[in-house]
Every structure is written in structure tokens, then in C-alpha cells.
Amino acid sequence: MKTGDAQAANLTSMRCGGRIAQLITAESKDELLRLLAGINEYIILGGGYNTIFSDGLMLTPVIKLGEAFEAVDADASGMLYAGAGASIASILTVCREKGLSGMEFMAGIPGTIGGAIRMNAGTNDKGIMDVVSFIDLMDASGSRRIEKAGIDYGYRHTALPSKAVITGAGLSLEISSPDDVRARVSSFIEKRRNQPRGLSSGCIFKNPEGSSAGYLIDKAGLKGSRVGGAVVSDVHANFIINEGSASTTDILKLIAIIKDEVKKQFSIELQEEVIILA
Ligand code: EPU
């Protein structure tokens, strides 16, 4: 088990936030179990692509899963098992090699499968839960497996016990060919060409039912709006870009401005997709 302090900026793709007093990396399931049995409150961090820490000192321990949780295995029937810390990219590499289809819509989405499952990450009409078959969870009482039929999920939402740590998941994929999977991965990456580069947390807001947050923010005339080093992307309005010097305070102020303006112009309350940890 590795323990130390850390800077939130080094753990998150938005690259902002304050100091984390205790960052703990669990290197095995045994270590994780001992850790969970010993602390009451904790934050589990995946790839940090959808999480923003406040600028203050974070006293709640932050747990990351080590390399032992990154394995990806697939069998000939199309069942793939991934440790929660496996990146979407590494899972797609296995899918391409073995010709397994079903995950292609996740191409270009950064982060780990554990993080993706927590929020049912995906596109506007599809989420990772569509291909999940079961999830392995751990809490202070031990490990358990939940079949998909027992999980309530929807657009950017998976209902799992908040204290449970996802340690891995089984994905149910279809047998295809490496060439077909590669071609479909490329077409999904092509579709993401309207998404900006630069430091960000991906889409900041969920799409409201029947509409698109990016479209609304754009139509509200907010592209290019800025607070300090945080700016609404000119490429896709549902992205806030940290130009390098943004604090979380800047980002939160910009989020508030966007919500106010969209509400004023369209009477729609945007809801954050990013998780902001105070
Ligand atoms: N649009 C604008 N202006 C903009 C951005 C978008 O007019 O600045 C319009 C587009 O022209 C399009 C519509 O809004 O007609 C929807 O835009 P887009 O196709 O980019 O899809 P989205 O709804 O903004 C969703 C997901 C993305 C995912 C793409 C993949 C959400 C909140 N966003 O974006 O997910 O990559 O579909 O197709 O569900 C994320 O969750 O972090 C994320 C980036």
C-alpha cells in the first residue's frame, strides 16, 4: 500500500484543485479490504477525467487502485473481464486484437472502466452499462458480484451503494473480426472530432432530456466566456478548458454563469455531469 500527500491537479485531467492530505494506492484486493475495514469515509478516484477537487485541503482520504486492478482478459465466447482500473483504451485494444464488438462507442472516452461504470459514461444514447454483464464490488464486509439485472441505471447514472468500490466488471461482447472492430472504433473517434483538445473534464453538464447542453450553451452565446484561466471552449460549448492557470474557484464561477444564462434564456436547469468534491 502506498500512502502520501498529493496535489489534486496531478490526479485530474482538469489540472486544478488543492492538496490532498492522504492519497492511498491499494495494490491488491487484500490490501483494499484491509483499508476499507479501517476507514469510514473515503473517495475512490479512477482516471480523474470527470472529477474536480476544490482549491482547499482535502482531508478525506483518496483511494486509487493500483496495477493489480488493471488486467483485461477475454475468452472465445465474447465475455471480457476488466479490473476496475483498466483504461477504456486498453480494453478497446483487447477488443481490436480479439475481434470483440460492443465497446466501440466508448472509443476516445478517456478514463478507467470503474469510473465509466460509476457514471454510465458513453455517448448521448448509449452507456457502458449497455455492455456490462456483472460488476464486482468490495466494501468493508468483503467482495460481492452484482448481476446487471439487479442494477438500476440510465443516462449518466448507475445506482450502486456509495461506499462500495468497483473492483472489476464482466462485459458481454459479440464475436466479430479485428478489422470490423478497428473500422468501427475509427468511426467513433471520427465523430469526436468536434471535441476540443486541452485540459478539461470532458462534458461539464449532462444533456437535458430532448436537448444538448453544448447546443444550448452555444446558442446562449457563451462560447469563449472566461473566468480567470477557465474558458468555455470555442470548439464545443459543453467543455470548459483550463488554459493552464485556472483554479477550481474560476471553474465553479464559470459553471454558475453558464447555468444562470441557460436558465434565463431557455428556462432549462443544466445539471453538472462532472463530480465536484469540496
Ligand atoms: N452543438 C452545438 N454547439 C456546440 C456543441 C454542440 O451546436 O458547441 C450541437 C451539435 O451540432 C449537435 C448537438 O449539439 O447538433 C449535440 O452535440 P454532440 O454531437 O457533440 O453531442 P453531445 O450531446 O454534446 C454527447 C456526450 C459526449 C459524447 C458525445 C458523443 C453528453 C453530455 N455528452 O455529446 O460525452 O462524447 O455525445 O457523440 O452526454 C462526456 O460525457 O464527457 C462527453 C463528452
The sequence of SSEs as H and E is: EEHEEEEEHEHEEEEEEHHEEEHE
Q: Give the bound compounds.
A: uridine-diphosphate-2(N-acetylglucosaminyl) butyric acid
| Number of helices, counting only DSSP H or I runs of 4 residues or more | 6
Average predicted confidence as pLDDT: 96
User: What structural class do you assign from the helix and strand content?
Assistant: alpha+beta
Biggest sheet architecture: 5 strands, antiparallel
Unreliable spans = none
Q: Give the oligomer, counting copies of the same chain as homo and different chains as hetero.
A: single chain
* Quantity of strands, as a count: 18
N- to C-terminal separation? 26 Å
Q: Which strands sit side by side, in order, in the main sheet? A: 6-7-13-9-10
Beta-strand content estimate: 25-35%
Rg over alpha carbons = 19 Å
Q: Which of globular, elongated, flat, extended, rod-shaped describes the shape?
A: globular
The percent range for helix content is: 10-25%
Word description of this protein:
This protein is of the alpha+beta class. The protein has helices at 29-38, 88-98, 113-119, 178-191, 213-219, 248-266; strands spanning 2-7, 19-26, 43-44, 51-53, 62-65, 72-74, 79-83, 100-101, 132-139, 142-147, 153-154, 157-158, 165-172, 174-175, 226-227, 230-232, 240-242, 275-277. The strands form 6 sheets. The chain has a 5-stranded antiparallel β-sheet. The structure holds uridine-diphosphate-2(N-acetylglucosaminyl) butyric acid. Residues 123-124, 191-192, 194, 202-203, 206-207, 212-215, 218, 236-238, 273 line the site of uridine-diphosphate-2(N-acetylglucosaminyl) butyric acid (EPU).
